[in-house]
Amino acid sequence: MPTLRYKVVPVFVLLLFLFLGQLPMAYSQLKPDSVTVSGRIKNLTIQLYRQSPNVTISRNNILQASRELARPAPLEPDGSFKVTLPLVYPYEELYFNFGQISTAFLASTGTIEIALDADSLFLSEAPFRFSGTNAQVNNQLTRYKAFEFKNKPKIDGRQLARKLEGRSAEDSRKILTNEFIATYEKYRETHDILPLLDQYIKSGVKYEVAAFLYDKASAEQDTRLETNVPITNLRSGNDLFLTVQRATALERFSLYATSRIADQEGRGIPVGTFAMLIDRYIRDLSETERARIDELKNGRTGANRDMPMLQRILQRHQDTLAKLLVYETRMSHYRKVVDSTGLDYLKANFVAMNLPTIELKNQELLYQHIMPQVGDPRYRLSLEELYRLEVKDSATINAVAAKFSKQINQPVEVLSGVSLLRSSRYGKELIEQFQGQAQGRLMYVLAWSPDVEASRQELQAARALQERLGSRDILFVYVGTSEASMELWRESVAKNKAKGLHVFVETDQFDSLIALLRSETVPAAGLLGRDGKFIKRDAPLPSKPEEVLKLLREK
């Protein structure tokens, strides 16, 4: 099961490096803007409302390309809706979703209104009508997206990569740009394009090209890429747009940079940096330890006699120091392969990617340590947004922890409709334990892990599915494990608040369940009857709600 695991660097290798200090940067005063999105779905039927009682407006964060930040807007009886979202960049690509209907639109500070008619949702190529901020651009964008859907050819990545073989960096960019912009240029032949829309589309193409080149370079281990597609090209000062292509390109840059330092695995950080971490975060040092740490942090060369002391401190405070050591080690390696602009992004991205996989106490520690080192004000705003989302449920997390900690085989209701169980059972006995809690209901079982992004997304989707079905005739059983800690699992459940039975198991117990589900991947799901026998192994996942509902109707 793929997880991000922290690896503690052996202390003895720290002496191999010279001291490299880092000075915190001043906090930026840039404040986020906001956009209000409102509108109405005319002729909304009861059937459509039952299928989708909300519309959803979502946007990206530049530090987490794989995650959409969604805001649901409940539909009023007349089909109207309204929601306000923050904006970090002057122009951001937003997405409107209602049932199976969706569209992208360009948002900036102000109010955007979206009108659509339920009678023509599946009949018109462009059923959306925009007014308010960027109205002309968004109406033209809607028409262009309909044209693109019908006329854009499928791109063969392998064939395109072959076209680039032996080409210079400049030629490669030209070939890719011509390929990705061809449909837009065809549209321009018969349409006058608004200047803002032209900038927006060309910005997306630029980042699409960059993402392709970074993927190609990572696959080929091309060490020349930092001169071919430097990070500064992905962050030009006049680029005011945040699109999914931009976030994806920067994510690919991060993966490429990480591949470049793969041969540094196991090498440590300067001993002075380690001493600075101890001085800043560890309070229970003896007088002798404190005196020696003061010498080391001020540049005194380490000696072999310091090794036992540093190892003891690390062992006493591994939970605190391990995360910081991983960060400092990673950055010391990145400095050798990227410029300061790229390093600034990698610092913020490190926090963003690790926040969901660590416990609340360590989220605060990592955020407070790294945030002052991030210089770009928009990266700072993006990181603050993600951090606030992670810790906003801290009161609920602490309340759940007070009710449930070490109980074995004893379900505890920690929130209304939310029960936690730490099981000691395996395989069929585990299923029998679920059946005892189901009390004659069907059981939909989701096997997941908070360590993996795909699992976390399925847990969110499961909550939405459970809310549609209720708990009268079916029990949702969420079976989780974590290589990090049970605490991380418990906190993830507290944040999600999905109603049903949440079960924590160790990895070997989890493997026994996966075998019963006959799945080769995690997350995995299964549907069981009222008698506890499987109706469907390797069942559809919650992210495909219509398939799950179809299965339930059939059975």
Number of helices: 20
- How is the main sheet built? 7 strands, mixed
Poorly predicted ranges: 1-28
Q: Hey, roughly how much beta strand do the residues contain?
A: 15-25%
Distance between the ends? 31 Å
Mean pLDDT, all residues: 87
CATH topology of the domain at 402-554: Glutaredoxin
Biggest sheet, strands in spatial order?
A: 10-11-14-13-12-15-16
CATH superfamily of the domain at 402-554: Glutaredoxin
CATH architecture of the domain at 402-554: 3-Layer(aba) Sandwich
SSE-based structural type: alpha/beta
Radius of gyration: 26 Å
The 3D shape can be described as globular
CATH class of the domain at 402-554: Alpha Beta
Helicity, as a percent range: 40-55%
How many β strands by DSSP? 16
Oligomer: single chain
Protein name: Thioredoxin domain-containing protein
Organism: Larkinella rosea
